[in-house]
Design brief:
The chain has two domains: about 90 residues, no CATH class; about 55 residues, no CATH class. With about 180 residues, it is mainly α. The radius of gyration is 31 Å and the shape is elongated. It has five helices and three strands; from the N terminus they run H-E-E-E-H-H-H-H. The chain is about 50% helix and about 10% strand. The protein has a three-stranded antiparallel sheet with strand order 1-2-3, with no helix packed on it.
Length: about 180
């Protein structure tokens, strides 16, 4: 008489779809999109690989991004489609936020300087030197007003006119004589 031993095991179960079925399904889907103002298209080829018409310099980066995202999704211990739906909605939300931010009037925008490097004034044409010096004088006046009155610089307009630049230019010409 044979002895049969039963062993109990725990395992994760993963649904694996036949590649031929997946290829047929993904081949049906594609979409058009805009990137840097130009129209492009995304689809899957006959082998199931993501393809798109994209600028050459961006295409490989996009493929790497897609592969990284898909790899991370598959490594998560949650339903893949739930993660994709969440990411889709999250990205759409960010697109909507970005579009709304682009509608803000310029008067409400703030600008911050980055990568500030000293300017070699001597390398600039005389007119540009005069324009920048006149602008610097106006900015110094604004800073002085703010320091005196304790007001914020928000909404302060610095004006630079042709006459101001011309006066600076004439002053420089007199100094050269």
């Amino acid at each position: 008489m044979n002895k049969t031993e039963a062993k109990l095991s725990l395992a994760d179960v993963k649904v694996v779809y036949p590649k031929s079925v997946v290829k047929q399904i993904v081949a049906k889907y594609s979409f058009e999109f805009e990137f840097d103002g130009a129209e492009y298209r995304c689809w899957h080829d006959a082998k199931g690989n993501v393809k798109f018409t994209f600028p050459e310099e961006v295409g490989p980066q996009m493929i790497a991004l897609i592969e990284e995202i898909d790899g991370r999704i598959h490594n998560m211990d949650v339903a893949t489609e739930d993660v994709r739906k969440f990411l889709s909605k999250y990205m759409l939300m960010n697109v909507m936020i970005g579009e709304e931010l682009q509608q803000i009037p310029r008067s409400k925008l703030r600008y911050e300087t980055t990568n500030v490097k000293p300017l070699d004034m001597d390398s600039l044409p005389l007119e540009e030197q005069c324009g920048l010096e006149a602008l610097q004088e106006q900015a110094e006046k604004v800073h002085a007003l703010v320091a005196e009155g304790g007001k914020s610089e928000d909404g302060v307009t610095v004006t630079l006119t042709k006459d101001m630049v011309q006066a600076k230019l004439e002053e420089k010409m007199r100094q050269k004589k």
